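Reopening this ticket.

The earlier resolution said the output was attached, but the attachment link was broken on my side. Pasting everything inline this time so it's all in one place.
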Amino acid sequence: MSDLDAIEASQAPAKTSTWLSPPAKLIICALFIQAWLVILHFRLAGHATANVRVIGQAFDLMRESSIPTAFAALQAMIACVIAGIIARVARKNGSTKRRWLGWLGVMAIFLIIAADDAAAIHERVNAIVSLELIERLQYPSYPWHVIFVPFFVVALLVTLWTVRADLTLTLAQKISLVVALLCFALSQSFDFAEGWEMMTRTLGDPIPTQLTQMMLVEEIMEMIGTTLFIYVFLTTLLHNLPQLFPSMPRSTKTEPTKSLNRIS
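Inline output:
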């Protein structure tokens, strides 16, 4: 190979796969951690030996004070930080006010999710909501649904619709976004069914196996959904960083995109 060929080869853009990009590798690691948390839950939380069960409580997916809950809160906080950085990038690039405010809204939503996972806010709401109010509404599941779910669903859909142009960079992003929304919807459906069952149980009755399985699936769906949101947000951020740092090459090849400084 001549010196000229070597120079041209070194200057040629590297061919990378969207699915093997740094964000994709990070998400694969997160899913790997989640898989291990599920394995440790089954291996330790229900172990026949009492001493092992005590250790297993730290990996119990259905306990609020556990490593999986801390991991879920960490994921939501990471999504919150990335959304905040994107809002900053959008504003600095001269994007429309509606657009960067939309990203601030996304940041606020995941901040609330992180705080809820860390402090079990919705469980505390169940304890303070008036039982008389719930009886009048005749709502069959957890009381906190009446207060939080309508606001959360509307806020999430409105903010995602506001920033939709930034969330459709690649096919992988589109698929991840749809699956993330489905995971959140499924987790809330399981939570509704779980609450329905819990509200009809007599205090002191053993928790049925079917209910335990629903609670487990709900937690897993929430973690996977947040992981996929991180992937979507991270690919959006990395795509738009070169606009702030012109010397920075793009990390992945993407389809024709709508950048954050486009007037929408």
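Reporter confirms the inline version is readable. Residues 47 and 134 are 38 Å apart (CA to CA). Residues 21-244 form one domain.
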